[in-house]
Amino acid sequence: xxxxxxxxxxxxxxxxxxxxxxxxxxxxxxxxxxxxxxxxxxxxxxxxxxxxxxxxxxxxxxxxxxxxxxxxxxxxxxxxxxxxxxxxxxxxxxxxxxxxxxxxxxxxxxxxxxxxxxxxxxxxxxxxxxxxxxxxxxxxxxxxxxxxxxxxxxxxxxxxxxxxxxxxxxxxxxxxxxxxxxxxxxxxxxxxxxxxxxxxxxxxxxxxxxxxxxxxxxxxxxxxxxxxxxxxxxxxxxxxxxxxxxxxxxxxxxxxxxxxxxxxxxxxxxxxxxxxxxxxxxxxxxxxxxxxxxxxxxxxxxxxxxxxxxxxxxxxxxxxxxxxxxxxxxxxxxxxxxxxxxxxxxxxxxxxxxxxxxxxxxxxxxxxxxxxxxxxxxxxxxxxxxxxxxxxxxxxxxxxxxxxxxxxxxxxxxxxxxxxxxxxxxxxxxxxxxxxxxxxxxxxxxxxxxxxxxxxxxxxxxxxxxxxxxxxxxxxxxxxxxxxxxxxx
Length: 489
Hints:
Layout: E1 2-3, H1 4-7, E2 21-22, E3 24-26, E4 36-39, H2 52-57, E5 62-65, E6 74-76, H3 80-91, E7 100-105, H4 110-123, E8 128-131, E9 135-137, E10 143-146, H5 154-166, E11 171-175, H6 178-182, E12 193-196, H7 210-222, E13 228-232, H8 236-247, E14 252-256, E15 263-269, E16 275-281, E17 284-290, H9 295-310, H10 315-322, E18 333-336, E19 341-346, H11 351-364, E20 368-373, H12 383-394, E21 397-400, H13 410-418, E22 427-429, H14 433-445, E23 451-456, E24 463-466, E25 469-472, H15 475-488
Parallel strand pairs: 3-4, 4-5, 5-6, 7-11, 7-12, 8-11, 12-13, 13-14, 14-15, 19-23, 20-21, 20-23, 21-22
Antiparallel strand pairs: 1-2, 8-9, 9-10, 15-16, 16-17, 18-19, 24-25
Helix pairs in contact: 3-5, 4-9, 9-10, 11-12, 12-13, 14-15
Protein backbone atom coordinates (compact mmCIF):
# COMPACT_ATOMS: atom_id res chain seq x y z
CA UNK A 1 0.00 0.00 0.00
CA UNK A 2 1.02 3.60 -0.63
CA UNK A 3 0.79 6.24 2.10
CA UNK A 4 -1.78 8.84 1.12
CA UNK A 5 0.43 11.77 2.14
CA UNK A 6 3.04 10.54 -0.30
CA UNK A 7 0.49 9.68 -2.96
CA UNK A 8 -1.31 13.01 -2.73
CA UNK A 9 1.51 15.16 -1.48
CA UNK A 10 0.16 18.40 -2.95
CA UNK A 11 -2.98 18.00 -0.81
CA UNK A 12 -1.09 17.37 2.41
CA UNK A 13 -1.54 20.91 3.73
CA UNK A 14 -5.34 20.66 3.46
CA UNK A 15 -6.85 20.99 6.94
CA UNK A 16 -9.41 18.29 6.21
CA UNK A 17 -6.86 15.78 4.99
CA UNK A 18 -6.79 12.49 6.89
CA UNK A 19 -3.66 10.35 6.97
CA UNK A 20 -4.43 6.73 6.07
CA UNK A 21 -3.26 3.82 3.98
CA UNK A 22 -4.76 3.86 0.50
CA UNK A 23 -6.16 0.43 -0.28
CA UNK A 24 -7.55 1.10 -3.77
CA UNK A 25 -8.65 3.77 -6.26
CA UNK A 26 -12.01 3.91 -8.00
CA UNK A 27 -14.45 6.21 -9.79
CA UNK A 28 -17.27 3.65 -9.39
CA UNK A 29 -18.99 3.95 -5.99
CA UNK A 30 -20.12 0.31 -6.21
CA UNK A 31 -16.48 -0.81 -6.04
CA UNK A 32 -15.56 1.30 -3.02
CA UNK A 33 -14.33 -0.44 0.12
CA UNK A 34 -12.71 0.70 3.35
CA UNK A 35 -9.66 2.91 2.83
CA UNK A 36 -10.36 3.66 -0.86
CA UNK A 37 -10.09 6.95 -2.73
CA UNK A 38 -13.23 7.83 -4.72
CA UNK A 39 -12.97 10.10 -7.77
CA UNK A 40 -16.38 11.72 -8.24
CA UNK A 41 -16.09 12.19 -12.00
CA UNK A 42 -18.76 13.88 -14.07
CA UNK A 43 -19.59 11.75 -17.13
CA UNK A 44 -21.90 12.06 -20.12
CA UNK A 45 -24.70 10.14 -18.45
CA UNK A 46 -23.94 10.18 -14.73
CA UNK A 47 -22.40 12.58 -12.25
CA UNK A 48 -20.07 11.19 -9.58
CA UNK A 49 -21.34 13.78 -7.10
CA UNK A 50 -24.60 11.86 -6.96
CA UNK A 51 -22.73 8.87 -5.53
CA UNK A 52 -20.61 10.57 -2.88
CA UNK A 53 -22.91 9.45 -0.05
CA UNK A 54 -22.77 5.85 -1.24
CA UNK A 55 -18.96 5.99 -1.50
CA UNK A 56 -18.73 7.32 2.07
CA UNK A 57 -21.08 4.64 3.39
CA UNK A 58 -18.88 1.98 1.80
CA UNK A 59 -15.76 3.26 3.53
CA UNK A 60 -14.16 5.82 1.21
CA UNK A 61 -11.60 7.75 3.23
CA UNK A 62 -10.95 10.41 0.62
CA UNK A 63 -13.23 11.80 -2.09
CA UNK A 64 -12.00 14.05 -4.87
CA UNK A 65 -14.35 16.22 -6.91
CA UNK A 66 -13.96 19.08 -9.42
CA UNK A 67 -16.69 21.13 -7.76
CA UNK A 68 -16.31 22.76 -4.37
CA UNK A 69 -18.66 20.82 -2.08
CA UNK A 70 -19.34 21.73 1.55
CA UNK A 71 -18.28 18.37 2.91
CA UNK A 72 -15.21 17.84 5.07
CA UNK A 73 -14.46 14.48 3.40
CA UNK A 74 -14.49 15.94 -0.15
CA UNK A 75 -11.50 17.79 -1.61
CA UNK A 76 -11.88 19.96 -4.70
CA UNK A 77 -9.38 19.25 -7.50
CA UNK A 78 -9.24 20.96 -10.89
CA UNK A 79 -8.99 18.79 -14.03
CA UNK A 80 -9.91 15.68 -12.09
CA UNK A 81 -9.61 13.21 -14.99
CA UNK A 82 -6.08 14.36 -15.67
CA UNK A 83 -5.25 14.25 -11.96
CA UNK A 84 -6.74 10.76 -11.56
CA UNK A 85 -4.26 9.38 -14.09
CA UNK A 86 -1.32 10.93 -12.27
CA UNK A 87 -2.53 9.59 -8.92
CA UNK A 88 -3.11 6.14 -10.44
CA UNK A 89 0.39 6.13 -11.90
CA UNK A 90 1.94 6.93 -8.52
CA UNK A 91 -0.29 4.42 -6.72
CA UNK A 92 0.96 1.62 -8.99
CA UNK A 93 4.59 2.69 -8.80
CA UNK A 94 4.87 4.77 -11.98
CA UNK A 95 5.14 1.68 -14.22
CA UNK A 96 5.41 3.58 -17.51
CA UNK A 97 8.66 5.17 -16.30
CA UNK A 98 10.18 1.68 -16.15
CA UNK A 99 8.82 0.50 -19.51
CA UNK A 100 9.41 1.55 -23.11
CA UNK A 101 5.92 2.68 -24.11
CA UNK A 102 4.53 2.72 -27.67
CA UNK A 103 1.20 4.57 -28.02
CA UNK A 104 -0.65 4.22 -31.32
CA UNK A 105 -3.49 6.41 -32.54
CA UNK A 106 -5.34 6.66 -35.86
CA UNK A 107 -8.83 6.18 -37.26
CA UNK A 108 -7.87 2.76 -38.59
CA UNK A 109 -4.89 0.50 -38.00
CA UNK A 110 -4.29 0.87 -34.26
CA UNK A 111 -4.84 -2.79 -33.39
CA UNK A 112 -2.77 -4.25 -36.22
CA UNK A 113 0.07 -1.82 -35.45
CA UNK A 114 0.04 -2.52 -31.70
CA UNK A 115 -0.19 -6.30 -32.00
CA UNK A 116 2.36 -6.50 -34.84
CA UNK A 117 4.81 -4.44 -32.82
CA UNK A 118 4.36 -6.61 -29.73
CA UNK A 119 4.70 -9.89 -31.63
CA UNK A 120 7.81 -8.76 -33.50
CA UNK A 121 9.45 -7.63 -30.26
CA UNK A 122 8.54 -10.93 -28.59
CA UNK A 123 10.10 -12.89 -31.47
CA UNK A 124 13.35 -11.02 -30.92
CA UNK A 125 13.38 -11.81 -27.21
CA UNK A 126 12.09 -8.45 -25.97
CA UNK A 127 8.75 -9.16 -24.34
CA UNK A 128 6.25 -6.43 -25.12
CA UNK A 129 2.91 -6.42 -23.34
CA UNK A 130 0.00 -4.78 -25.10
CA UNK A 131 -3.49 -3.39 -24.67
CA UNK A 132 -5.48 -3.54 -27.89
CA UNK A 133 -9.11 -3.39 -28.99
CA UNK A 134 -9.04 -7.20 -29.00
CA UNK A 135 -7.29 -8.07 -25.75
CA UNK A 136 -4.60 -7.61 -23.12
CA UNK A 137 -1.29 -9.44 -23.17
CA UNK A 138 1.47 -9.29 -20.57
CA UNK A 139 4.18 -10.64 -22.85
CA UNK A 140 3.10 -9.84 -26.41
CA UNK A 141 1.89 -13.30 -27.37
CA UNK A 142 -0.53 -14.71 -24.78
CA UNK A 143 -3.85 -12.88 -24.30
CA UNK A 144 -4.93 -12.99 -20.65
CA UNK A 145 -8.28 -11.22 -21.02
CA UNK A 146 -10.51 -9.53 -23.57
CA UNK A 147 -10.73 -5.77 -23.81
CA UNK A 148 -13.84 -3.74 -23.08
CA UNK A 149 -12.54 -0.39 -24.32
CA UNK A 150 -9.90 0.47 -26.91
CA UNK A 151 -8.20 2.70 -24.33
CA UNK A 152 -9.22 1.81 -20.76
CA UNK A 153 -9.68 4.26 -17.89
CA UNK A 154 -6.48 5.52 -16.29
CA UNK A 155 -6.78 3.42 -13.12
CA UNK A 156 -7.19 0.17 -15.07
CA UNK A 157 -4.45 1.27 -17.48
CA UNK A 158 -1.88 1.95 -14.76
CA UNK A 159 -2.76 -1.30 -12.97
CA UNK A 160 -2.27 -3.22 -16.23
CA UNK A 161 1.03 -1.47 -16.96
CA UNK A 162 2.19 -2.57 -13.50
CA UNK A 163 1.13 -6.16 -14.29
CA UNK A 164 3.08 -6.04 -17.56
CA UNK A 165 6.16 -4.73 -15.77
CA UNK A 166 5.89 -7.35 -13.01
CA UNK A 167 5.61 -10.05 -15.67
CA UNK A 168 9.08 -9.17 -16.93
CA UNK A 169 8.26 -7.19 -20.07
CA UNK A 170 10.42 -4.22 -20.93
CA UNK A 171 8.14 -2.83 -23.64
CA UNK A 172 4.42 -2.10 -23.83
CA UNK A 173 2.26 -1.10 -26.80
CA UNK A 174 -1.20 0.36 -26.43
CA UNK A 175 -3.95 1.96 -28.49
CA UNK A 176 -4.84 5.60 -27.89
CA UNK A 177 -8.40 6.24 -29.05
CA UNK A 178 -9.81 9.72 -29.60
CA UNK A 179 -12.21 9.14 -26.70
CA UNK A 180 -9.36 8.02 -24.47
CA UNK A 181 -7.23 11.03 -25.37
CA UNK A 182 -10.10 13.50 -24.95
CA UNK A 183 -10.92 12.01 -21.54
CA UNK A 184 -7.27 12.12 -20.37
CA UNK A 185 -7.07 8.34 -19.87
CA UNK A 186 -3.35 8.40 -20.72
CA UNK A 187 -2.61 11.02 -18.09
CA UNK A 188 0.26 9.82 -15.90
CA UNK A 189 1.69 7.67 -18.69
CA UNK A 190 5.17 8.43 -19.99
CA UNK A 191 5.10 8.06 -23.79
CA UNK A 192 8.37 7.04 -25.38
CA UNK A 193 7.10 6.54 -28.95
CA UNK A 194 3.85 7.86 -30.42
CA UNK A 195 2.51 6.60 -33.76
CA UNK A 196 -0.19 7.93 -36.11
CA UNK A 197 -1.41 5.24 -38.54
CA UNK A 198 -4.19 7.09 -40.40
CA UNK A 199 -6.92 9.70 -40.17
CA UNK A 200 -10.41 9.88 -41.67
CA UNK A 201 -14.08 10.35 -40.75
CA UNK A 202 -15.32 8.64 -37.57
CA UNK A 203 -16.81 9.19 -34.10
CA UNK A 204 -18.73 12.37 -34.89
CA UNK A 205 -21.40 11.11 -32.52
CA UNK A 206 -18.95 11.97 -29.71
CA UNK A 207 -16.79 14.75 -31.11
CA UNK A 208 -18.26 18.13 -32.00
CA UNK A 209 -16.91 18.03 -35.56
CA UNK A 210 -14.07 16.57 -37.63
CA UNK A 211 -11.67 19.27 -36.36
CA UNK A 212 -12.42 18.37 -32.75
CA UNK A 213 -11.88 14.69 -33.57
CA UNK A 214 -8.56 15.48 -35.26
CA UNK A 215 -7.34 17.61 -32.36
CA UNK A 216 -8.14 14.80 -29.92
CA UNK A 217 -5.94 12.47 -31.97
CA UNK A 218 -3.16 15.01 -32.25
CA UNK A 219 -3.14 15.66 -28.49
CA UNK A 220 -1.06 12.47 -28.22
CA UNK A 221 1.76 14.33 -29.98
CA UNK A 222 1.09 17.84 -28.68
CA UNK A 223 0.22 17.29 -25.03
CA UNK A 224 1.77 13.99 -23.95
CA UNK A 225 5.22 15.03 -25.19
CA UNK A 226 6.49 11.73 -26.64
CA UNK A 227 10.24 11.29 -26.97
CA UNK A 228 9.81 10.16 -30.59
CA UNK A 229 6.91 10.34 -33.05
CA UNK A 230 6.28 8.20 -36.14
CA UNK A 231 3.75 9.63 -38.58
CA UNK A 232 2.05 8.04 -41.61
CA UNK A 233 2.01 11.10 -43.87
CA UNK A 234 -0.23 9.80 -46.69
CA UNK A 235 -3.14 11.81 -45.27
CA UNK A 236 -3.63 15.51 -44.59
CA UNK A 237 -3.71 15.10 -40.81
CA UNK A 238 -0.46 13.16 -40.85
CA UNK A 239 1.23 15.73 -43.07
CA UNK A 240 0.04 18.50 -40.76
CA UNK A 241 1.34 17.04 -37.52
CA UNK A 242 4.59 15.88 -39.13
CA UNK A 243 5.25 19.42 -40.35
CA UNK A 244 4.27 20.89 -36.98
CA UNK A 245 6.58 18.56 -35.04
CA UNK A 246 9.45 19.06 -37.50
CA UNK A 247 9.21 22.84 -37.21
CA UNK A 248 9.25 22.50 -33.42
CA UNK A 249 12.49 20.50 -33.76
CA UNK A 250 10.92 17.38 -32.23
CA UNK A 251 12.20 13.86 -32.88
CA UNK A 252 9.79 12.79 -35.65
CA UNK A 253 9.97 10.25 -38.48
CA UNK A 254 7.74 9.79 -41.53
CA UNK A 255 6.21 6.69 -43.17
CA UNK A 256 4.77 6.75 -46.69
CA UNK A 257 4.03 4.69 -49.77
CA UNK A 258 3.61 7.80 -51.95
CA UNK A 259 6.04 10.48 -50.82
CA UNK A 260 9.64 10.88 -49.80
CA UNK A 261 9.88 9.61 -46.23
CA UNK A 262 12.22 8.20 -43.60
CA UNK A 263 10.49 4.84 -44.10
CA UNK A 264 9.12 4.58 -47.63
CA UNK A 265 7.66 1.32 -48.87
CA UNK A 266 6.28 -0.10 -52.11
CA UNK A 267 4.62 -3.43 -52.81
CA UNK A 268 3.29 -5.83 -55.43
CA UNK A 269 0.69 -8.54 -54.82
CA UNK A 270 1.91 -12.03 -55.64
CA UNK A 271 -0.01 -15.16 -56.66
CA UNK A 272 -0.33 -16.29 -53.03
CA UNK A 273 -2.34 -13.18 -52.03
CA UNK A 274 0.64 -11.75 -50.18
CA UNK A 275 2.58 -8.52 -50.59
CA UNK A 276 6.15 -8.53 -51.88
CA UNK A 277 7.43 -5.38 -50.18
CA UNK A 278 10.42 -3.10 -50.59
CA UNK A 279 11.37 -0.82 -47.70
CA UNK A 280 13.61 2.14 -48.50
CA UNK A 281 14.67 3.68 -45.21
CA UNK A 282 17.28 5.79 -43.49
CA UNK A 283 18.59 2.46 -42.13
CA UNK A 284 18.97 0.82 -45.53
CA UNK A 285 16.87 -0.93 -48.17
CA UNK A 286 15.19 -4.30 -47.61
CA UNK A 287 12.93 -6.74 -49.48
CA UNK A 288 10.45 -9.03 -47.72
CA UNK A 289 7.03 -10.62 -48.09
CA UNK A 290 4.08 -9.76 -45.83
CA UNK A 291 1.43 -12.33 -45.07
CA UNK A 292 -1.44 -10.09 -46.18
CA UNK A 293 -2.94 -8.71 -49.38
CA UNK A 294 -3.72 -5.39 -47.68
CA UNK A 295 -1.55 -2.36 -48.35
CA UNK A 296 -3.17 -0.70 -45.30
CA UNK A 297 -1.99 -3.50 -43.04
CA UNK A 298 1.42 -3.21 -44.69
CA UNK A 299 1.55 0.46 -43.69
CA UNK A 300 0.73 -0.43 -40.07
CA UNK A 301 3.46 -3.08 -40.02
CA UNK A 302 5.99 -0.59 -41.43
CA UNK A 303 5.06 1.78 -38.58
CA UNK A 304 5.71 -1.07 -36.12
CA UNK A 305 9.06 -1.88 -37.72
CA UNK A 306 10.08 1.78 -37.62
CA UNK A 307 9.20 2.04 -33.92
CA UNK A 308 11.23 -1.02 -32.97
CA UNK A 309 14.20 -0.07 -35.14
CA UNK A 310 14.28 3.40 -33.58
CA UNK A 311 14.26 1.75 -30.15
CA UNK A 312 17.35 -0.30 -30.87
CA UNK A 313 16.09 -3.66 -32.16
CA UNK A 314 18.13 -5.18 -34.95
CA UNK A 315 16.60 -4.37 -38.32
CA UNK A 316 17.85 -7.54 -40.06
CA UNK A 317 16.34 -9.78 -37.39
CA UNK A 318 13.08 -7.82 -37.59
CA UNK A 319 12.93 -8.23 -41.36
CA UNK A 320 13.60 -11.96 -41.03
CA UNK A 321 10.70 -12.28 -38.61
CA UNK A 322 8.16 -10.10 -40.39
CA UNK A 323 7.38 -12.67 -43.11
CA UNK A 324 5.90 -15.05 -40.50
CA UNK A 325 4.04 -12.35 -38.62
CA UNK A 326 0.53 -13.42 -37.61
CA UNK A 327 -1.90 -10.53 -37.98
CA UNK A 328 -4.79 -9.83 -35.58
CA UNK A 329 -8.05 -11.72 -36.05
CA UNK A 330 -10.59 -10.18 -38.38
CA UNK A 331 -8.19 -7.90 -40.26
CA UNK A 332 -8.49 -8.70 -44.00
CA UNK A 333 -8.65 -12.36 -43.04
CA UNK A 334 -9.05 -14.56 -46.12
CA UNK A 335 -10.97 -17.84 -46.12
CA UNK A 336 -10.97 -19.96 -49.27
CA UNK A 337 -14.49 -21.24 -50.00
CA UNK A 338 -13.65 -23.37 -53.04
CA UNK A 339 -11.44 -23.23 -56.14
CA UNK A 340 -13.29 -20.17 -57.46
CA UNK A 341 -14.44 -18.25 -54.42
CA UNK A 342 -13.03 -16.52 -51.35
CA UNK A 343 -14.48 -14.83 -48.30
CA UNK A 344 -12.77 -12.02 -46.45
CA UNK A 345 -13.53 -10.94 -42.85
CA UNK A 346 -12.55 -7.40 -41.96
CA UNK A 347 -13.21 -5.03 -39.08
CA UNK A 348 -13.90 -2.18 -41.54
CA UNK A 349 -16.51 0.00 -39.85
CA UNK A 350 -15.49 3.43 -41.11
CA UNK A 351 -15.89 4.88 -44.62
CA UNK A 352 -12.14 4.84 -45.28
CA UNK A 353 -11.65 1.29 -44.02
CA UNK A 354 -14.58 -0.05 -46.07
CA UNK A 355 -13.33 1.69 -49.18
CA UNK A 356 -9.82 0.31 -48.77
CA UNK A 357 -11.05 -3.22 -48.11
CA UNK A 358 -13.27 -3.24 -51.21
CA UNK A 359 -10.64 -1.62 -53.44
CA UNK A 360 -7.97 -4.09 -52.39
CA UNK A 361 -10.24 -7.07 -52.95
CA UNK A 362 -11.20 -5.66 -56.34
CA UNK A 363 -7.53 -5.32 -57.25
CA UNK A 364 -6.63 -8.77 -55.95
CA UNK A 365 -9.44 -10.97 -57.31
CA UNK A 366 -11.40 -11.43 -60.49
CA UNK A 367 -15.16 -11.86 -60.49
CA UNK A 368 -18.16 -10.55 -58.59
CA UNK A 369 -17.59 -8.69 -55.33
CA UNK A 370 -20.20 -9.01 -52.58
CA UNK A 371 -20.28 -6.64 -49.61
CA UNK A 372 -22.04 -7.72 -46.41
CA UNK A 373 -22.14 -4.84 -43.93
CA UNK A 374 -24.17 -2.59 -41.65
CA UNK A 375 -23.51 0.33 -39.31
CA UNK A 376 -23.48 0.46 -35.53
CA UNK A 377 -26.41 1.94 -33.64
CA UNK A 378 -26.04 4.85 -31.20
CA UNK A 379 -22.92 5.91 -33.05
CA UNK A 380 -21.85 8.38 -35.76
CA UNK A 381 -24.86 8.69 -38.10
CA UNK A 382 -23.08 10.92 -40.63
CA UNK A 383 -20.93 8.05 -41.88
CA UNK A 384 -23.88 5.81 -42.77
CA UNK A 385 -24.74 7.30 -46.20
CA UNK A 386 -21.02 7.62 -46.94
CA UNK A 387 -20.56 3.89 -46.39
CA UNK A 388 -23.63 3.14 -48.49
CA UNK A 389 -22.16 5.14 -51.38
CA UNK A 390 -18.76 3.45 -51.02
CA UNK A 391 -20.30 -0.03 -50.98
CA UNK A 392 -22.26 0.79 -54.14
CA UNK A 393 -19.23 2.19 -55.94
CA UNK A 394 -16.83 -0.67 -55.28
CA UNK A 395 -19.00 -3.80 -54.98
CA UNK A 396 -21.36 -5.61 -57.33
CA UNK A 397 -23.90 -6.67 -54.71
CA UNK A 398 -24.62 -5.08 -51.32
CA UNK A 399 -26.11 -7.28 -48.62
CA UNK A 400 -27.25 -4.89 -45.94
CA UNK A 401 -27.52 -6.34 -42.44
CA UNK A 402 -27.20 -5.61 -38.73
CA UNK A 403 -23.86 -4.67 -37.24
CA UNK A 404 -24.44 -3.75 -33.58
CA UNK A 405 -27.75 -1.86 -33.68
CA UNK A 406 -27.70 -1.42 -29.89
CA UNK A 407 -30.79 0.58 -28.87
CA UNK A 408 -31.58 1.92 -32.36
CA UNK A 409 -34.21 0.50 -34.68
CA UNK A 410 -32.44 -1.42 -37.43
CA UNK A 411 -34.79 -0.10 -40.13
CA UNK A 412 -33.77 3.49 -39.37
CA UNK A 413 -30.09 2.56 -39.65
CA UNK A 414 -30.74 0.82 -42.99
CA UNK A 415 -32.67 3.86 -44.24
CA UNK A 416 -29.76 6.17 -43.49
CA UNK A 417 -27.27 3.85 -45.20
CA UNK A 418 -29.54 3.54 -48.25
CA UNK A 419 -29.79 7.33 -48.52
CA UNK A 420 -26.27 7.17 -49.94
CA UNK A 421 -27.11 4.48 -52.51
CA UNK A 422 -28.26 5.61 -55.97
CA UNK A 423 -29.38 2.21 -57.28
CA UNK A 424 -31.32 0.26 -54.62
CA UNK A 425 -31.56 -2.69 -57.05
CA UNK A 426 -27.97 -3.53 -56.04
CA UNK A 427 -29.06 -4.00 -52.42
CA UNK A 428 -30.44 -7.03 -50.62
CA UNK A 429 -31.53 -6.28 -47.04
CA UNK A 430 -31.45 -9.10 -44.51
CA UNK A 431 -31.49 -7.83 -40.94
CA UNK A 432 -30.40 -11.16 -39.43
CA UNK A 433 -26.62 -11.16 -39.83
CA UNK A 434 -26.28 -14.94 -40.00
CA UNK A 435 -28.90 -15.11 -42.74
CA UNK A 436 -27.16 -12.31 -44.64
CA UNK A 437 -23.78 -14.08 -44.53
CA UNK A 438 -25.25 -17.45 -45.51
CA UNK A 439 -27.26 -15.86 -48.33
CA UNK A 440 -24.11 -14.24 -49.74
CA UNK A 441 -22.01 -17.41 -49.50
CA UNK A 442 -24.73 -19.60 -51.00
CA UNK A 443 -25.41 -17.12 -53.82
CA UNK A 444 -21.71 -16.85 -54.62
CA UNK A 445 -21.43 -20.65 -54.72
CA UNK A 446 -24.22 -20.81 -57.27
CA UNK A 447 -22.71 -18.25 -59.61
CA UNK A 448 -20.99 -19.53 -62.74
CA UNK A 449 -18.09 -17.17 -62.15
CA UNK A 450 -15.47 -16.25 -59.58
CA UNK A 451 -16.67 -14.46 -56.44
CA UNK A 452 -15.25 -12.73 -53.40
CA UNK A 453 -17.46 -12.01 -50.37
CA UNK A 454 -16.44 -9.27 -47.93
CA UNK A 455 -18.04 -9.60 -44.50
CA UNK A 456 -17.29 -6.22 -42.95
CA UNK A 457 -17.77 -4.36 -39.72
CA UNK A 458 -17.20 -6.76 -36.86
CA UNK A 459 -13.94 -8.56 -37.54
CA UNK A 460 -12.75 -10.18 -34.30
CA UNK A 461 -15.93 -9.44 -32.36
CA UNK A 462 -17.70 -12.56 -31.09
CA UNK A 463 -20.95 -10.86 -30.16
CA UNK A 464 -23.74 -8.61 -31.38
CA UNK A 465 -25.37 -5.82 -29.39
CA UNK A 466 -29.11 -5.81 -30.13
CA UNK A 467 -31.63 -3.90 -28.00
CA UNK A 468 -28.82 -3.36 -25.50
CA UNK A 469 -28.28 -7.10 -25.04
CA UNK A 470 -24.93 -8.67 -25.86
CA UNK A 471 -25.57 -11.85 -27.85
CA UNK A 472 -22.99 -14.49 -28.81
CA UNK A 473 -22.22 -14.17 -32.52
CA UNK A 474 -19.07 -14.66 -34.60
CA UNK A 475 -18.84 -14.02 -38.36
CA UNK A 476 -16.04 -16.54 -38.71
CA UNK A 477 -18.00 -19.32 -37.00
CA UNK A 478 -20.91 -18.77 -39.41
CA UNK A 479 -18.57 -19.02 -42.39
CA UNK A 480 -16.81 -22.16 -41.15
CA UNK A 481 -20.13 -23.82 -40.32
CA UNK A 482 -21.25 -23.07 -43.88
CA UNK A 483 -18.08 -24.67 -45.21
CA UNK A 484 -18.55 -27.77 -43.05
CA UNK A 485 -22.17 -28.15 -44.12
CA UNK A 486 -21.24 -27.65 -47.78
CA UNK A 487 -18.48 -30.28 -47.63
CA UNK A 488 -20.82 -32.73 -45.91
CA UNK A 489 -23.33 -32.57 -48.75
